[in-house]
Automatic annotation (TrEMBL):
Organism the protein comes from: Kribbella deserti
Name of the protein this chain belongs to: Gfo/Idh/MocA family oxidoreductase
Signal peptide: none
PANTHER family, A to Z: BILIVERDIN REDUCTASE A (PTHR43377)
Sequence ranges assigned to domain Thiazolinyl imine reductase-like C-terminal in this UniProt record: 146-242
Name of a matching Pfam family: Irp3-like_C
Highest taxon, organism lineage: Bacteria
Domain spans labelled Gfo/Idh/MocA-like oxidoreductase N-terminal: 5-118
């Protein structure tokens, strides 16, 4: 039950985050190799972590237990799902990075059963600290208040995780429907329902074909509204914010009395951070939180492989999320191509300086 599983990582772009996640679990996993085409980056990566570089899945030794497939799936124009099925046919367990087309996902589950292996879809975003805080707060909120609406925004690259976060937060997915209502500017707008709750989605359906992992306007922003107020995830990395709904009581409306009956709620802050108000830097998120989040998926896979108590099997849930993701991408249509994008960092000191002299009073 405590033995280390030997694991290979397929792909060295996003796969480098998986390598970091594996290296952070030395008691549970042993890195046994990298599977890649042999580019300079892949060769240097294998040398840096001190493991063999295999050019094809067929070259991977039979004593490997797990393959992390971090190569674009067929839905994204890559061979990831085919690679996953090749490993599963050999009885090698697979953790595949999202998103995956529902048909490919079902094929991988079938291949896993035929090969006597375990297949799991990976999604690091739902394990990030701010997302877990948002989900925890949402579950408490919705146990006591009905959701009035959901407003959410993301880039098309992370639309599947958005649905995953919503499913975890709401605890319900159906009835589900989305239709496109606008496609002007960077953000396309979809309306619909999720779990019967009115839903608005705003998605940046654009990509730079030469640099598809960059130049996105946002990762995830979500607001769940209720009669008491709204719970917001302002970014994938936080903060999580509670905004009580403004209600002007009769004492204020009729007598301008802020201490009279029914005014107690006015002493609550109009915006309250749940957890740290200052999110981590991107350096900390990418180097520490993302690998740790991937580690959570690795540990969940290991629990199933070794038959540990409490191991979860979210196959049907992930199939439903994949079907919903296909509905969203179908409604959006093909992304607009925006080649030649530039990275233009802005020193935040210039913004801080602009507001430094503004006091709380009105002048």
């Amino acid at each position: 039950m405590t033995r280390r599983l030997r694991v290979v990582v397929c792909g060295t772009t996003f796969g480098q985050f998986y390598l970091a996640g594996i290296q952070a679990l030395p008691q549970e996993y042993e890195l046994a190799g990298i599977v890649a085409r042999g580019s300079d980056r892949s060769t240097a990566c294998a040398e840096r972590v001190g493991v063999p570089l295999y050019r094809t899945p067929a070259e991977v030794p039979a004593d490997v237990d797990v393959a992390c497939v971090v190569v674009r799936s067929g839905a994204m124009g890559g061979p990831g799902s085919e690679i996953a099925r090749e490993f599963l046919a050999r009885g090698i367990h697979v953790l595949q990075e999202q998103p995956v087309h529902q048909g490919d996902l079902a094929d991988c589950y079938r291949a896993a059963r035929a090969g006597g292996a375990t297949y799991r879809l990976g999604d690091l975003y739902v394990h990030l600290p701010a997302v877990r805080r948002f989900v925890a707060a949402a579950r408490v909120l919705l146990a006591d208040r009905a959701a009035s609406y959901v407003d959410a925004a993301c880039s098309m690259q992370v639309a599947f995780p958005l649905l995953h976060i919503l499913g975890d937060a709401l605890g319900v997915l159906r009835p589900w429907q989305v239709i496109a209502v606008g496609n002007e500017g960077p953000l396309s707008v979809l309306h619909g329902t999720i779990g019967g709750i009115p839903l608005t989605l705003r998605i940046q359906n654009e990509v730079d074909p030469d640099d598809p992992d960059n130049h996105i306007h946002l990762l995830h922003r979500i607001t769940i509204g209720t009669a008491s107020g709204s719970l917001g995830l302002t970014d994938t990395h936080g903060p999580v914010v509670w905004n009580p709904r403004l209600h002007i009581p009769a004492a204020v409306r009729d007598r301008y009395d802020f201490a009279g009956e029914g005014t107690g709620h006015l002493g609550t802050a109009s915006s309250l951070a749940l957890g740290p108000a200052q999110p981590p830097s991107y350096r900390e998120s990418l180097s520490r939180h993302w690998p740790a989040a991937i580690g959570a998926d690795l540990l969940a896979l290991r629990a199933v492989v070794l038959g540990l108590p409490g191991a979860d099997r979210p196959e049907q849930y992930h199939l439903t999320l994949s079907r919903m993701w296909q509905d969203v991408t179908s409604a959006l249509g093909y992304p607009a191509l925006r080649p030649g994008q530039d990275h233009e960092p802005l020193p935040v000191a210039s913004l801080a300086g602009a507001v430094a002299g503004i006091a709380d009073g009105i002048s």
